[in-house]
C-alpha cells in the first residue's frame, strides 16, 4: 500500500516541481529590466509567453493555464508598479488623469495569458494527428503551436483593449477615436508579428529537445 501511494505521489511531486521551475523562469523574465517586458512607449513587447507555451506542451493544458495565470499576474504587477502611458488597460490600480482601469483590465491581463497556456497544446497535438510522423513534421507542429500561442496573446489583448478601452486608449496615444483600430493593427504588425515569429522558432528548437525527455506529457 505504501509503495502504491509513493508511486502516485512521485509524478505529482515531479509535476509540481516542473511547474515551479517554469513559474520561476517567468518571474525572472518579468522582473528583470528590459528582458521579459520591453517598453516601447505605446506598449510593451514580451517574450514571457515562450516559457508558457513550452510549459504547456511539456506539462499539459492544466499546468499551462497555471503558468499563463502567473504570466498575467506579472503583467498586472509590472503595470501597477512600473507603468507606461497605457498601463491602465492591464491594471485596475493605475490611473492616467481621468483615465483608469477597471474590470476590463483584469480580463485583458489574465484571459489571453491563461489561453496562451492552453491553445498551443491542442494546436500541437491536433497537427500531430494530421501530419505523418517525422522530425520535420514534429518541428512544423511545434512551430505552429508557438505561433498560435503568441498570436493568441497579441490578438486577444489588442482586440479586448479595443472593446473595453477604445476611447481611453486613443486618448492615451494621441490618436483620433475613429483611427484607433488602425493604430491597434499597426501595433500588431510591428510588435505582434515579430513576437509570433520568435515564439515559433524558439518553440520548435527548444520543444524538440524537451519533448523527447521522459518528463514531458505525451
Automatic annotation (TrEMBL):
A Pfam family reported for this protein in Swiss-Prot or TrEMBL: ECF_trnsprt
Keyword DNA-binding tagged: no
InterPro entries assigned: ECF_trnsprt_substrate-spec (IPR024529)
Bilayer-crossing regions: 12-31, 37-57, 64-81, 101-123, 144-165, 180-206
MF (Gene Ontology): transmembrane transporter activity
Keyword Transmembrane in annotation: yes
Keywords, alphabetical: Membrane, Transmembrane, Transmembrane helix
Protein name: Membrane protein
Species, as recorded: Murimonas intestini
Lineage: Bacteria, Bacillati, Bacillota, Clostridia, Lachnospirales
